[in-house]
């Protein structure tokens, strides 16, 4: 990232924005391009290769959808950073960008959390009836979640408009001095409801899940398969939360606090902004890691994935064979 630190301020109390290194644009584009390929293929497998969905497949499909929707905006964000954070696409496009980013990140978090709860209930309370096991209920739940996500996204887009800062049009930037209080408040709402709370729920579910699968009889093939699959899902989900989402929220929280209470600490502000964008790229890696959840967490997806590879390889006759659907 840019190694030049600002030593002055403009208008007395506001730090002058510094351009970020071009590597930000390159890495951001590569990460989301890979995410597009992986999630696009995953959505194709879900919609075209899996004929019977269970409740887990419904949640995984919605997670893939929340990951994929960010991809069309990646070129706009890349141009924005390449042009020294100058938004040239107009007010509506900025509001759309903010809404879609909100839906993407919040959707990824909430569907990951629901997958954690689903896996916990399915393994730990396998002999109990639960709404989360019912496909019809999960479908309705997902529709309600999408309505909530869209509403929140539209609200954020309306609350955080484009502003002109130092001859540049800024969109979703910490340098929008008139929106400092709005960013401060929104950040702590996001930090609690879309980071701390989901992370706490997931850690609880996976700690109980890990304790439960440790007692599974691994002498049977089914017991070994359930244990291996569950442990893999525990590792992947906690890595996604701990690596992709937690650092982004922590750095952003420090940034808005410094911006509000120490706005003239320009060197610190630039370092935090650079760290935030680095964490933003790392957060985008969740789009590439989430397909591992589908592969390790769903026997149906794994079988459909392998059949799809054989079809792509030209052996379509294998597709005519019928394989039984599983529920875990």
Automatic annotation (TrEMBL):
The chain crosses the membrane at residues 22-46, 58-83, 103-122, 143-162, 182-209, 230-255, 275-297. One of its GO terms (molecular function) is G protein-coupled receptor activity. It is found in: Cell membrane. Coiled coil: none annotated. One of its GO terms (cellular component) is plasma membrane. Pfam families: 7tm_1 (PF00001). It comes from the Eukaryota. Keywords: Cell membrane, G-protein coupled receptor, Membrane, Receptor, Transducer, Transmembrane, Transmembrane helix. Residues 38-294 form the G-protein coupled receptors family 1 profile domain. It is a multi-pass membrane protein. Belongs to the G-protein coupled receptor 1 family. This is P2Y purinoceptor 4-like.
């Amino acid at each position: 990232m840019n190694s030049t630190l600002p030593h002055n301020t403009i208008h007395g109390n506001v730090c002058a924005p510094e351009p970020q290194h071009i590597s930000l644009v390159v890495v951001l584009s590569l990460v989301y391009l890979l995410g597009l390929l992986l999630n696009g293929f995953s959505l194709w497998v879900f919609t075209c290769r899996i004929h019977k969905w269970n409740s887990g497949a419904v949640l995984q499909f919605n997670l893939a959808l929340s990951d994929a929707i960010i991809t069309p905006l990646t070129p706009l964000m890349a141009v924005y950073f390449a042009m020294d954070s100058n938004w040239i696409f107009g007010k509506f496009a900025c509001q759309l960008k903010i809404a879609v980013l909100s839906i993407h990140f919040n959707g990824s978090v909430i569907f990951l959390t629901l997958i954690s709860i689903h896996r916990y209930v399915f393994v730990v309370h396998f002999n109990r009836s639960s709404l989360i096991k019912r496909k019809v209920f999960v479908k309705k739940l997902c529709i309600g979640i999408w309505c909530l996500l869209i509403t929140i996204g539209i609200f954020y887009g309306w609350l955080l408009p484009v502003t002109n800062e130092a001859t540049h049009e800024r969109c979703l930037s910490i340098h929008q001095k008139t929106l400092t209080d709005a960013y401060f408040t929104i950040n702590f709402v996001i930090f609690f409801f879309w980071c701390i709370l989901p992370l706490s729920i997931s850690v609880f579910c996976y700690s109980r899940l890990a304790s439960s699968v440790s007692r599974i009889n691994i002498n049977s093939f089914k017991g070994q398969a359930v244990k291996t699959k569950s442990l893999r899902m525990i590792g992947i989900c906690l890595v996604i939360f701990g690596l992709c989402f937690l650092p982004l929220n922590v750095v952003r929280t420090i940034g808005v606090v410094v911006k509000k209470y120490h706005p003239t600490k320009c060197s610190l502000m630039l370092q935090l902004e650079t760290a935030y964008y680095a964490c933003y790229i790392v957060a985008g890696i969740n789009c590439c890691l989430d397909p591992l959840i589908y592969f390790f967490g769903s026997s149906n997806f794994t079988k459909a994935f392998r059949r799809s590879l054989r079809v792509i390889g030209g052996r379509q006759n294998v597709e005519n064979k019928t394989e039984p659907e599983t529920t875990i």
